[in-house]
Amino acid sequence: MRDPPSVEAPHHLFLTELVPLTLHPAAVYLSGLSEGSRPTMRHALDAIAYLLTDGECDAMNLDWAALRYQHTAAVRAALMQRLAPATCEKMLCALRRVLKEARKLKLIEAEDYEAAIDLPRIDTPPRKLRGRALKGDEIAALMEACQKEGARTIDVRDAALIAILRGGGLRRNEVVNLELKDFDSSTGALEVHKAKRGAYRRVYLPTGACAIVEQWLAIRGNAPGPLLCPIHRWGQVTLRPMTSDAVLRILKRRALQAGVDSFSAHDFRRTFCSDLLDAGVDIVTVQKLAGHTSPTVTAKYDRRGEETKRRAVQNLEIPFKKRD
């Protein structure tokens, strides 16, 4: 993302002395984010700080508690000149969140805080939904690529990975953080301890996915440690965590082998949500299984398409009498 245009601001917005991170609004806000979101939002806050100080300080050297409505309104106007509406709104959301931390830390008066965050929302035009849902034959082809006769250790491990992504709807970083103790083969439960924003949730794998994971565990063994592990080039299991990038590489390789169009690990989450909704599961239950903050977020993962809408209206009865 390009840096937005700068706006003049008085130098009293600069911090004049070091502030403990526990009392720094931007640091407190960033510490509450997931590892994946933190760099993006730090970049957004740096861009706002550069804008307010004509490029002279970053997010950690700006006195966020000194911001007033004239500053935040100027930031909004400057961002709208160069950036897409969705990007502007995301950056302004970060700005509001930092000011909220300043208010909770008693660094800014309530009246000044309310005025500073009272900015009109930026309307974002409808966009084509990102990602896609995988079709049943595509998932079958991926599993077949891993479960062919004479499957190697790495094939069994990859089948378990795909089964968890498809059957549990987990994020990449959630999968690689799973421990052996997190899986209960008797119920199919997976304990997700390191979800987004440090949240916890419990999901359940379908019977078929459980059987595939148990095949992997028969090879992995019952030693404590990561549920899914790297495989040495000679087929030896290494009891250490996989990386989220390794998951991405595995899926790309298996898609190529199976002749499946390109997809992301997150597309398995979209498939998970879409298939459950299509099966008639209520959206609140799907929200809880996916670990979303609200049903509104879950609705954005729905990729069922036009056929589902066409089938839905067939449930509406309209009296009709055919004329002779």
TrEMBL record:
GO terms for biological process: DNA integration; DNA recombination. Keywords: DNA recombination, DNA-binding. The keyword Cell membrane does not apply. The keyword DNA-binding applies. Residues 129-314 form the Tyr recombinase domain. CDD domains: DNA_BRE_C. One of its GO terms (molecular function) is DNA binding. Gene3D superfamilies: Intergrase catalytic core (1.10.443.10). InterPro entries: DNA_brk_join_enz, Integrase-like_cat_sf, Integrase_catalytic, Tyrosine_recombinase_XerCD. Belongs to the 'phage' integrase family. This is Site-specific integrase. It comes from Symplocastrum torsivum CPER-KK1.
